[in-house]
Amino acid sequence: AQRVTQPEKLLSVFKGAPVELKCNYSYSGSPELFWYVQYSRQRLQLLLRHISRESIKGFTADLNKGETSFHLKKPFAQEEDSAMYYCALSGGDSSASKIIFGSGTRLSIRP
Amino acid sequence: DAGVIQSPRHEVTEMGQEVTLRCKPISGHDYLFWYRQTMMRGLELLIYFNNNVPIDDSGMPEDRFSAKMPNASFSTLKIQPSEPRDSAVYFCASSLSVAEQYFGPGTRLTVT
């Protein structure tokens, strides 16, 4: 069964500290993995996807197929990173699949 | 483009009443998704359409929920009768592909 697990509901770190938001997935094929973000009073939006291999707002995420993980990382947290983060998975078949979202992690950056 | 438009933004209703949520997707997008967000369950996909046709409604909680997409620029999600446990934020999203979805601002539904 397809499943996305985000074990932490809330993560609180100090400004300037490293951040790692955990995401593990279960999927039998070759999935596409994404991170979506929802800032306060804003819409949910795509942050990054694993196929792009980009760094967005200082965040990176590497797909580890051996560990079935797609953790989101940033070396130095900033206050504006405070938001709700969702890890998501799709089947990778552009003609079909829906996206499955994890339950989300609320990231709080303390000054 | 104003993005995905949802109405109303807030809805408060009494148990047993019918609720209709509305969504206007981004022009040209051929996928439309309805999600429900709660603290306990996070973001759940209820149903999605491709070219106005429902593709997967396995996330619709029960027969009280129904969704329609009569044309490419409009969709509704209806709950009849509503119950307090339906209280949540309901999001509509649209996309050109399944992957990059554009979300609306959401409708916060409170059923008393």
Report on the structure:
The complex is a heterodimer of chains A (111) and B (112). Chain A has 111 residues and is an all-beta fold. Chain A has strands at residues 3-5, 10-14, 19-21, 24-26, 32-38, 45-49, 60-61, 72-74, 83-90, 99-101, 105-110. In chain A, strands 2, 5, 6, 9, 10 and 11 form a six-stranded mixed β-sheet that branches. The relative contact order of chain A is 0.34. The model of chain A has no long low-confidence stretch (mean pLDDT 90). By secondary structure, chain B is mainly beta. In chain B, 0% of the residues lie in helices and 55% in strands. Chain B is built from no helices and eleven strands. Chain B has strands at 5-7, 10-13, 19-24, 31-38, 42-50, 53-56, 65-71, 74-79, 88-95, 102-103, 107-111. In chain B, the strands form two sheets. In chain B, strands 2, 4, 5, 6, 9, 10 and 11 form a seven-stranded mixed β-sheet that branches. In chain B, strands 1-3-8-7 form a four-stranded antiparallel β-sheet, with no helix packed on it. In chain B, a hairpin with a 3-residue loop joins strand 4 (31-38) and strand 5 (42-50). Chain B is globular, with a radius of gyration of 13 Å. Chains A and B meet through strand 6 and strand 10 of A and strand 5 and strand 10 of B.
Which helices and strands, and how do they pair?
The complex is a heterodimer of chains A (111) and B (112).
Chain A: E1 3-5, E2 10-14, E3 19-21, E4 24-26, E5 32-38, E6 45-49, E7 60-61, E8 72-74, E9 83-90, E10 99-101, E11 105-110
Parallel strand pairs in A: 2-11
Antiparallel strand pairs in A: 1-4, 3-8, 5-6, 5-9, 7-8, 9-10, 9-11
Chain B: E1 5-7, E2 10-13, E3 19-24, E4 31-38, E5 42-50, E6 53-56, E7 65-71, E8 74-79, E9 88-95, E10 102-103, E11 107-111
Parallel strand pairs in B: 2-11
Antiparallel strand pairs in B: 1-3, 3-8, 4-5, 4-9, 5-6, 7-8, 9-10, 9-11
